[in-house]
Design brief:
The protein is globular, with a radius of gyration of 10 Å. It is α+β, with helices and mostly antiparallel strands and 65 residues long. The chain is 37% helix and 31% strand. It has one domain (2-64): Alpha-Beta Plaits. The chain is built from two helices and four strands. A four-stranded antiparallel beta sheet has the order 2-3-1-4, covered by helices on one side.
């Protein structure tokens, strides 16, 4: 299922990698697309939305939606 998150605090490629890595720890098969100019993270995953949001937040980013 496709899930979209608004993630603030991503300012560089390293940030994108950190968010991607956090999501893939929850779901190694997840497909992650990030547009940091829009603060948007799209994830194709069957994992619960809350679990993915928590993983992103634990990396130090603010997650909404």
């Amino acid at each position: 299922m496709n899930q979209t998150f608004q993630v603030t605090g991503m300012t560089c490629g390293h940030c994108e990698k950190a968010v991607t890595r956090a999501i893939k720890l929850v779901d190694p098969a997840a497909e992650v697309t990030i547009d940091r100019t829009q603060n948007k993270v799209d994830v194709l995953s069957d994992q619960p939305h809350e679990a993915l949001a928590k993983a992103i937040a634990e990396e130090g980013y603010q997650v909404t939606a």
